[in-house]
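Practice problem: predict the structure.
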Amino acid sequence: MSSPTLSPAAGRSRPARRARRRPLLSLYTLLVLAWLLLPIAVMVLFGFNDTASKVNFTWQGFTLTWYRHLFAIPNLTSALVNSLTIALVVAVVATLLGTPIGLALGRYRFRGRGSTDLLMFAAIAAPEIALGAALLSLFIVLGVPRGYWTVVVAHVAFCIPYVAITVRARMAGHDPTLEEAARDLGAGPWTAFRLVTLPMLLPGVASGALLCFALSIDDYVITSFNAGRTVTFPLWVYSASRTGVPPQVNVMGTLIFVGGLIIAGANVLFSRRRAV
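Answer:
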């Protein structure tokens, strides 16, 4: 049987249909980006709102007053400091604990590897409320008073799988022959790891640490279960929303957002330079 052939008109119509689809896809992409960036744009804008009350929902004029009086609310300042320090500690501890797990999962085959891998993904897929409630029950059973360090422990438990999975994915592109070549040239196990393996894993380790920092600083659900009397930035903002959010919240949110962009951009530049 002879195969069916397309007419020249049908062949010419396909590029025309594709050309018509491109503007629609571009418009759809722009609308999605606008929807995602709209809350951030409102936050940045209302950080300059010249309001005389805590109700910061109507535009009343441009001012830099809230940037000059950023730390005028002591409770808000202490809540921000708590969030920043907790996120920093969590990023360091979770990275130190999660990196060896990711390295083992990506390099070695051992009994229980599949179960460990499944456990990492299950911890990521589990709802935060389940992990928060489980940790709360654990602290109550052990008689541990909830506060600053219980939040740190809870966030570390939440963030370790993200570091492990990120490092494991980085290990997929690792060439083991480079480390073997270093060993053949006289390098010991630790020297080969420090000079060959670790620099290749560094982008994955840095990405995992930044992800932990971002997840910790804006977490509300797990923190609300295990914070006790410790107040973090998300908890303070939620409690203030009942009476009115002051403009300093928008300013702090803007600075955190800009800081995240700077760190992410620096990480991308660093990765590109290493690739070159």
